[in-house]
Amino acid sequence: VLFPLAYGFSSYSLESFRFYLLARRDLVHSIVEAQIDLDQQKGAVNSLRESFLGGIDQKIVDANQQTLAALDGLEKEIVGGIDARPELKMLLDEADRRWRGISHETWQAARINIPRLSAREFLDVLVRSKPLSYLSIVFGGVFVFTLSLGRHLPLLDGLQWTLVWIVSTGALVYVTNILASALSRFAAPVFIGLYTAIVASGLWTVLIPGVSPDARFSAFAIHLTVVATSLLVGYGPAISKNNQDALNALRKHLDNASISRLKVESELVVLAQKVASRLHAENRGAFMAKVLNLQRSLDAGDAEKALADLREVRDVLQSESRRDSEPGDDDLLRFLANWRGLIEIDSNLHVVNVPDVLHPPVNTIVMDAVNDAVRHGGADWVEIYLDDSGEKVVLSIRNNGTPPSNAPSGGVGGKTLDRLATAGWSREVDVLGFTRLRVEFLRP
Questions:
Q1: How many beta carbons lie within 10 A of that of residue 424, not counting itself?
Q2: What does the alpha-carbon distance between residue 147 and residue 71 come to, in Å, rounded to a whole number?
Q3: Is the CB of residue 401 less than 8 Å from the CB of residue 378?
Q4: Residues 149 and 158: beta-carbon distance below 8 Å
Q5: Where does 129-154 have alpha helices with state H?
Q6: Bridge pairing between strands 392-399 and 425-429
Q7: Cα(102)–Cα(108) distance, rounded to whole angstroms?
Q8: How far apart are CA 59 and CA 79, in angstroms?
Q9: pLDDT under 50 in the chain at which residues?
Q10: What is the bridge-based pairing of β-strands 435-442 and 392-399?
């Protein structure tokens, strides 16, 4: 009877344990973020950083070499009077695919690996959280009386011995919870020893006079079941209730070496996200703007202008490099200047003063939004409006391109918005059919 009840209670315990694992993960992140003294780890961080960025640089070089080789073939077609527009479209699609691939790989390349939960850590957390349930002991007394002692003894005797069992077992449970949670060392061995003593304490039931051997065995069997149930039912709520004790036990298992490794990984995560965002927005945008210029020249049949535009595409590819900082205002001005020759851009960014800390995220989001509007939406005008008059700073970007359909939520663009939009973001189509991206920032 007890075990099905314990099984039902254990579902709550397992849910509590799941919440503990989530809290454990958040604690690891908070410990990493709280550790700001990186002097001893600078050498390791710098070596890993250079190795990581060197790999990105090589990917960029390889991708650009492939695109430059395709441009050589395109130039021959233009000089020979062959319609190069289909070849140019293939080149743009392939180059765009390579750039997206590099951005995605860079974003995924560095991550924080949360240390796995070890048996030793779990046991230490468990014993410090006072896991044995007192209610299970009281409730178990009902079964001791109704299924054993009360059936073989007079009513008052059965109640008396049941009360003795509840008090003695409950006292041992209390001592075990308090003592194990108070010890700074050897808490787990002490808990195991005391829990074993609780299990063995049920043997005193054989000394009860007037009870048959079968009844004594049933009393001891119920005792074992109740003690097991006390732990099974109690550990989940105990971990939740004694959260600080559990987290203190966790901190002991995260040694300095683990913290150092996690700090290195956290720096690489931030670095990877910045590089990926910039590759996805600024570098890809500069290349696409020059390619669209070349496209226009080919559409107009101006071979001489097309060859000049092709040389500019080459120059962009040969001068492109990875940057590990977020774009500044000068970078944004150059970016918009490239695109203004191709599309109409209306912006109030130059007249709105926002806190300096918001300039890099605004610049990154604007670059990425313009790229996507033109490349994937076919827009020929973009409106960029920044509002700093309310409780939040709001960036609104509207264009007349085709709305994105089934856009992957896990793309670099979406992840960048999740990272930078501190108060949330949304994308919708307004009543006029224009696509509007709204990004909100918490005021610093």
A1: 13
A2: 88
A3: yes
A4: yes
A5: 134-144, 150-152
A6: unpaired
A7: 10
A8: 31
A9: 34, 36-41, 44, 408
A10: antiparallel
